[in-house]
Amino acid sequence: MFEALNTTGEPLTAFETLKPKIIEAESLEHYQGSASHKDVQRIEVYLDAFKKADDRQRATSELLIPMALAETGDRLQKNLSDQRRYLRDYFDGLPSLDDKRGVVGSLANLTDFVRTGWQSVEDEPALEAFGKFDQEAGFCFQSLRQLKHVIAIAPLSRFYDQYRRSDDATRAQRRQDLITAIKATTAFSMLWRGGHGGTENIDGVYRAVMREGASDQGIPPLARQTDKQQGVVSVNNYRRLLWSRFLKSFSDKDAWIKAASRVPIYDHSAVVTKFLLIVASDDAAADPLDPVLLVRGTKGLAPTIRTDAWDSASHYSVEHIAPQSSKANGWKEGLYDDPGTINRIGNLILLPGEPNSYIGKRPWDHKKLIYKYLCAETAAEAGTIAGTFGSAGLTLGLNGEKILTGTGYLPMCKGISKCTEEWDVDIVDRRSNRLAELAYERVIDWLKV
Questions:
Q1: Domain residue ranges in the chain
Q2: Which InterPro entries does the UniProt entry name for this protein (predicted)?
Q3: Are strands 290-296 and 316-320 parallel, antiparallel or unpaired?
């Protein structure tokens, strides 16, 4: 009947109502300077930065929801009374002071993961006591953040927690485990959504990994302690669980490619679209047998999987080669017979924002010339191409000239610029299949066991 309020009459957050229990567990006499006290301070550094009561409640809720999933595999609701009740019952039920200290420490580590990683405003976040990721892991972490894939916080926080608790003998391995878990999570989530189109109960998959594991494979859950069994933090088990779930939807590579090449992926997620285009283009070259398509080139040829692929300064947006509007001039009508064709990956490319907007709904022959200009390898070549604009009826204007000359070299345009045919459904089909194949092959080893 009574609600816990602070001195200003605002409801206390669920963590604020837990804090007295933490003090009681340590005892008032010994709380100051205890392990729990230090961890509570780490949590409060983050939460106290939110000055408005509603913002602090929201931030607390966004910590406690993944905390409950990581600790017990429970799906905690946003309701304040539910969160208070969960924390009270869980904390009171822990058998020893060491167990209670462990939970507070894990919540503090999760808070650091969110504060310095997930919610960081930096384009290349540096996790507390960990630092920055390498290029692949940084690219993956940024992908998950861009996707707002918050369900991934719980499993990744378990690996981060293990890293923070490691000693000199195990730290290097725990660091690698976190990196491997980030890459496996990214591969699973992006391929899952790329093949299904929508989310297709992806949150349910992660909750099952946390709460259930796989009894038929002898794999315990990833959560610390469910109501059935003790959890285990094992990156090999984690990958096995995700991989087995993936195979239930896509039995092999061909099955995923067939599905992903038909999905109008842009309808579902611009982030997943961008991810697939980036990984498919990594170290790619034009196919000598069909130049509009790509093949995997030698390592280091044209790397695209980099942390800064997602940062604000080099943000690339998704460009539709055949425009989304069927009223655009000069495009084959068959492209618009199936409304999904335009949004399939084979009709998409990545361009910086300004050239993307400028190219817009232009006819195919004009677009192809601009693509050719944007992948010119020398100033002389670019000048020669620009010299053909007028005869093709393409007038840039001062603004257009400024945009194109300031864009720089875009290797993704090379294959499109070599197309000798009218852009049609057959090209979209071929290109969709090839890009799906390249994307799958590039990331599957992050997941497959």
A1: 254-447
A2: GmrSD_C (IPR011089)
A3: unpaired
